[in-house]
Design brief:
By secondary structure, the protein is of the alpha+beta class. It is built from 1 helix and 9 strands. The strands form 2 sheets. A 5-stranded mixed β-sheet has the order 3-9-8-5-6, with no helix packed on it. A hairpin with a 2-residue loop joins strand 1 and strand 2. The protein is elongated. The model has no long low-confidence stretch (mean pLDDT 89). The structure holds copper (II) ion.
């Protein structure tokens, strides 16, 4: 074999290796199930700014899990189960995800993780100190 043939063989092997390592990691199908749950608790006594208050009602809504991670190129399927007794919204800032679910409703969203970064998952119906936001992280 001459040098040119060896060079082509070497370059070909490198390209094949890169292609194999890239295809092994990219384009996975990720399936998540997220439960939206409301927590309604009453604290018997609380002292707020020096004033003692009885029967403080605390209402919070959580997405469980709140943080999701994907890689660029992955197909992301999220099954959203709204276990809250009220309507909830599930939106991902920067991605085309914005869905509202009635109480006890289940919906599925499917999209491609096309761009890297960290994006806020939030509910458009309730303030962020009540319905706590999460994150959708896309690894390059
Ligand atoms: Cu909400």
């Amino acid at each position: 074999m001459n040098k040119v043939a060896l060079l082509f063989l070497g370059v070909g092997l490198i390209i094949a290796g890169l292609w194999l390592s890239a295809s092994a990691e990219r384009g996975k199908e990720l399936n998540f199930t997220v439960y939206i749950r409301a927590y309604d608790t009453t604290i018997p006594e609380a002292t707020i700014e020096g004033v003692m208050i009885k029967n403080v009602r605390q209402f919070n809504v959580l997405n469980e899990p709140e943080n999701l991670v994907a890689r660029v190129g992955d197909t992301v399927n999220i099954k959203i189960v709204n276990e809250s007794p009220i309507s909830e919204n599930y939106s991902i800032e920067g991605y085309d995800v914005d869905t509202t679910l009635k109480a006890k409703e289940t919906k599925e969203v499917k999209f491609k993780a096309s761009k890297p970064g960290s994006y806020t998952i939030w509910c458009k119906l309730h303030p962020k100190n009540i319905h706590l936001p999460g994150s959708f992280s896309v690894i390059p």
